[in-house]
Amino acid sequence: MLDLFSESLAGRALFAIPKKGRLYEKCLQLLAGADVQFTRSNRLDVCLVRNHNMALVFLPAADIPRFVGEGNVHFGITGQDMVAEADVNGLVSEVLQLEFGKCKLQVQVPQSGDIKTVDDLVGRKVVTSFEVLAGRYFGELDQKSDKGVKTKIEYIGGSVEAACALGLADGIVDLVESGETMRAAGLHAIETILTSQAVLIRSNKPAEPHHDALIERITSRIAGVVAAGKFVLCNYNVPRKMVHEATKVTPGRRAPTVSPLDDPEWVAVSSMVLKAQVADVMDRLQEIGASDILVIGLQNCRV
Ligand SMILES: Nc1ncnc2c1ncn2[C@@H]1O[C@H](COP(=O)(O)OP(=O)(O)OP(=O)(O)O)[C@@H](O)[C@H]1O
Ligand SMILES: O=P(O)(O)OC[C@H]1O[C@H](OP(=O)(O)OP(=O)(O)O)[C@H](O)[C@@H]1O
Ligand SMILES: [Mg+2]
After folding, report:
1. How far does residue 24's CA lie from ligand 3's centre (Å)?
2. CA distances in angstroms from 249 to 3, 63, 229, 230, 280, listed in the order given
3. ipTM (interface predicted TM)
4. Which of 269, 239, 222, 262 lies closest to 31 in space, CA to CA?
5. Where are the beta strands (DSSP E) in 230-298?
6. Interval between CA 246 and ligand 1 midpoint (Å)
7. Closest-approaching ligand to the CA atom of 178
8. What is the pLDDT of residues 223-232, one digit of tens each?
9. The pTM is what?
10. What's the CA-to-centroid distance between 24 and ligand 2, angstroms?
């Protein structure tokens, strides 16, 4: 059975995807947008892709940097925090930032208490799932401090925020996104160790040439899906004499498309705009005298 299984994987490019958790659903959406077709049978962590010479390997997000770094899989998606924690410098390359899974790794302490700064934690006990990053951070602080003591770093696998209330720790190092979990546990952040988002990483071990081509094609498809989520297409009409002002507001990625209208006094403009800025852009265009401003969502693109 095992032989049959590894035989069917032989010669395929291997793509690691988080098997569950915060990144999972978004990864499935990216794969669908890139037309990577597969059926994941219940509990099966490896599945063959129907329309490419590739297989998906579903792994814990924390293990993906090591699998990619050691070349067991060719490329994968995980968090930048996981890549940093796995200490795989030089073994993997970050090829694409995916704009989801955004969070910060922060030092947190009880809101009410005697610890106000990270220096107050030197020599005390810190609990975390990020032993390597927290160890390095407090190791450097310990060295700089004149206390001559070591901060104790202890690993726990999850629900890290409960540690202080349970008397396990004086402070913690854990991920924060909305801050809801942190506040609910009566904690606040006193330092940010790193910011993170989901990334596509690739092994630095050379792959076979036919894998290279496929990995690049899938990467470029995913880049298109990510860009489509980041940009909208903004179309509007503007008096010809104001087009210079208007296109300063919507310069586009390369250049805006300006087309003549039947009315020689007016032109039509089409330009890509960052989704996050679109309301402001529309206000400014309206002030300049643009009309019929339409914003169109992109399903996919190559830019
Ligand atoms: N609250 C969050 N908001 C945004 N991204 C997050 C958040 N928590 C974690 N992440 C990102 O998702 C990655 C995987 O975290 P996740 O919590 O899914 O894994 P896990 O802790 O191994 O799984 P689980 O929590 O299901 O046991 C993290 O390394 C981080 O990059
Ligand atoms: O700032 P927030 O939006 O509240 O998100 C932060 C929380 O999300 C993650 O936990 P997760 O849900 O993955 O649970 P876990 O602790 O079991 O990993 C992280 O470990 C924090 O606890
Ligand atoms: Mg988690």
Report:
1. 12
2. 60, 44, 20, 17, 10
3. 0.96
4. 222
5. 231-239, 257-260, 266-274, 291-297
6. 42
7. 2
8. 999 999 999 9
9. 0.91
10. 14
Q: CA 85, CA 133: separation in Å to the nearest integer?
A: 6
**CATH architecture of the domain with range 231-297:** 2-Layer Sandwich (3.30)
Of 82, 177, 188, the one to substitute when testing ligand 2's pocket (max ligand atoms within 8 A of C-beta) is 177
Ligand sitting nearest the alpha carbon of 17:
1
What are the tens digits of pLDDT across the range 89-117? 999 999 999 999 999 999 999 999 999 99
pLDDT at 3: 62
Residue span(s) of the chain under CATH 3.40.190.10 come to 2-100+198-207, 103-196
Nearest CA to ligand 2 atom 22: 181
Q: Taking the domain 2-100+198-207, which CATH number applies?
A: 3.40.190.10
CA distance 269 to 290: 10
Q: At what angle do helices 209-230 and 24-33 cross, to 10 degrees?
A: 100
**Residue 50 and residue 186: Cα distance in Å, rounded?**
49
Q: In the chain, where does the domain assigned CATH 3.30.70.120 lie? A: 231-297
CB of 161 closer than 6 angstroms to any ligand 2 atom: yes
With a 6 Å cutoff on the Cβ, whether 265 touches ligand 2 is no
Ligand nearest to the CA of 198: 1
- Does 60 contact ligand 2 (Cβ within 6 A)? no
- Tell whether domain 103-196 is in CATH 3.40.190.10: yes
Out of 175, 180, 196, give the residue to mutate to test ligand 1, the one with the largest number of ligand atoms within 8 Å of its CB: 175
Helix or strand holding residue 153 (H, E): strand 152-155
> What's the 158 CA to ligand 3 centre distance in angstroms?
7
